[in-house]
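Feature request, filed as a ticket because there's no other form

It would be nice if the structure record came with a short human-readable summary line next to the tokens. Right now we just get the raw output. Example of a typical job, pasted below so the devs can see what we mean:
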Amino acid sequence: MDRRSFIAAGVALSASASNWSRAAAASTDRHQSTAYSAPQLLVHIEDRLDYLRRVDDELGSGEVHKQASNELSLAVRLIKAGRHTDNDLRRLYALAAEAARQVAWTAFDQSRFGIAQRYFDAALRASVQADDTLTGAYALSFAAIQCYSTGQAGRAVALLDTARTQVKGKATPRMEAMLAARTARALSKTGAKSDTAHYLHLARTALDKGRHDDDPRSLYWVDYGEVEMIAGSSALDLGDPAEALRRFDAGMKAYPGDDEYPRTHAIYLARAAEAHLALDDLDGAVAAARHAAVCLSTVDSVRSASQLKGVRDKLLPHVHYRPVAEFLQGG
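Raw output as currently delivered:
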């Protein structure tokens, strides 16, 4: 896609966010009571969506995209059947919102930005029908990643501001931490160093409050390791590779192993390689790049592969150094 396509997708996401924000402001967020028992079919859909999130972590987005599309189609079919109670219908719309978010996210991970934008829009619309602001804000936080990854950091900051405003007083600390950390990442793309530090502090402070029983199941991945990895990526964009490596090291120590999150590790290892390279540490850069390549060997992710390709391109001027040449030749 050319830059005009990136911008068009970003503009559309902004319009969707604006519409969602107006609807969310009027939302009553009618959560089901503890006495509510969803039909087993709905429970099974929710369990499968939870499982697909884990598959995406381990294997990447290719297969998950197809499976999430199937779950979305099933939820839509059940909604159209018109045979459900109000509670069940809201639950179905919430499931449709999460399925659409997964379709959007996996499309983005495969660099299909126009498709991703349309499904992010669908996720926001379904969250309104579900009267579920938190699910909408979660989808919006992923849409923001698409914006700041395609050169529209200011737009990403605005999307995250919208999400944080609408969930204020409704979100658990873990949700607040996720939104603050992603706001910091978007701000780092704008060069706002002090604001980036402020939101990273907010993210860490929120995590200090611990887990809550009502944390959304989708936030299982939000922890100190993730925040430190975001801090490292932010420091790299802000021109401080030494701080980036300190944060990446802290993140790796706090983060689960390669087997559980190989794609995420590959992305952060590729960025660590860039930080080593910026410090003229070719051996460190090659070691991190090799590790990233190992992580990616079983992952289907255009986004991650592109990150590693960027490292390879930056290593090319140093091909006269034997370890670099061996890495570039070895794949």
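Something like this underneath would help us a lot:
The two ends are 26 Å apart (CA to CA).
Residues 256-331 form one domain.
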